[in-house]
Design a protein that fits this description.
The structure is a homodimer. With about 140 residues, the first copy, chain A, is mainly alpha-helical. Helices cover about 60% and strands about 10% of the residues of chain A. The structure holds a DNA duplex (23 and 23 nucleotides).
Chain lengths: ~140, ~140
DNA sequence: TATTGTTATACTCTATAACTATA
DNA sequence: TATAGTTATAGAGTATAACAATA
C-alpha cells in the first residue's frame, strides 16, 4: 500500500524526474548520445580503463561496449590500446580531441540550473551541508 | 573556464548521476522498458491523453509513440480510443491491468532510498523545506 | 577451464520524411 | 492548408548466445 510518502523523497524524486532530460540535452549539444557522453565522463585522462570495466560503469553487457567504443573511436575521441600485462584486455584512452570535448562538456554539466541559483545563499549552504552528509554516509 | 563549482549543485549533480539507474531498474522489475514505465506514470487513470500529448510528455517525436503504444496495448496495459470531438485524434486510456501495474510501480518509486532514510529527522525536514522552495519558484 | 572481447541475432527507442484521414 | 497519427527507413542501445584468443 502507499499511504504517506516521505516528503523529502517525494520532492527530491520530482526534481530527479524533472532533471531527467538534462544529461541527454547536454550530450546532444556535442552531438553525442547519452551513453557516449557517459563514456567520456567516465574515461578520465591519465586513467585508461579496460573495456570490461567500462561495461560495469555503464551498467550494460560487455557485448554492447564493442559498438559504443567503435563509434567513439571512429570519431577520434577515444582509442583502444593493447594491455601489456594481459593480452586479452583492451585498454581505452581518451585522445586529445576527446579530452577537449570532455572538458567543455563537464563545464556545461557544472553550470548550476536556475533552480539552484534562485535559492538564497543560506538555502544553498544548507542544501550543500545536507547532501554532503548524505554522501558521507557511504 | 571552469574554476569554482557551486557546491550545492556539485553534490546534487553527483546524486542525480548516482540515481540515474533507479528508474530503469524499477521499470525492469515490471518487465517494462524505461519509456514504457514513463508512459504508465504519465497516464493517470480517469485522465485519458491524446497520443500527441504523450509525445510531448515523453519529449520524443510523435512517430515513435505509435510503436510504444502498440507494445503496451499488445500487453493489455493501455488502450487506444477514438476521440468523439476530433476523429483524427486517438485518446489513450489505462486498462484495469495497467492500473494495477501502475499502482505497484508508483509505490516502488515512492520508497525512499537509504540515502534519504539515513538522514536525521532534522535534515529530512530541512531538505524538504529547501526543495519545496525550489519547486515553488516556478 | 575461465575470462576478455567480439560477432550474430533480435528487439526497442530514436529521428526524418512521406503518407492518410481528417479538420 | 494544416494537423493527428501512421508507415518506411535508418541508426543506436540493449540483451543473449556462441565464438576466438588468451590466461
Amino acid at each position: 500500500m502507499m499511504g504517506l510518502m516521505n516528503p523529502a523523497w517525494q520532492l527530491l524524486n520530482d526534481l530527479l524526474m524533472a532533471q531527467r532530460a538534462r544529461m541527454p540535452a547536454i550530450a546532444a549539444e556535442f552531438e553525442l548520445s547519452p551513453v557516449q557522453a557517459q563514456v567520456l565522463r567516465l574515461l578520465e585522462p591519465e586513467r585508461p580503463m579496460p573495456m570490461g570495466r567500462l561495461a560495469c560503469g555503464l551498467g550494460c553487457d560487455a557485448s554492447n561496449v564493442t559498438g559504443i567504443v567503435d563509434r567513439l573511436e571512429a570519431r577520434g575521441l577515444i582509442e583502444r590500446r593493447p594491455a601489456p600485462a594481459d593480452r586479452r584486455v583492451r585498454v581505452l584512452v581518451i585522445t586529445p580531441a576527446g579530452r577537449r570535448v570532455r572538458t567543455t562538456m563537464l563545464a556545461r554539466l557544472a553550470e548550476p540550473p536556475v533552480e539552484i541559483t534562485r535559492l538564497s545563499r543560506e538555502d544553498q549552504e544548507l542544501l550543500a551541508g545536507i547532501l554532503a552528509r548524505m554522501a558521507a554516509a557511504d
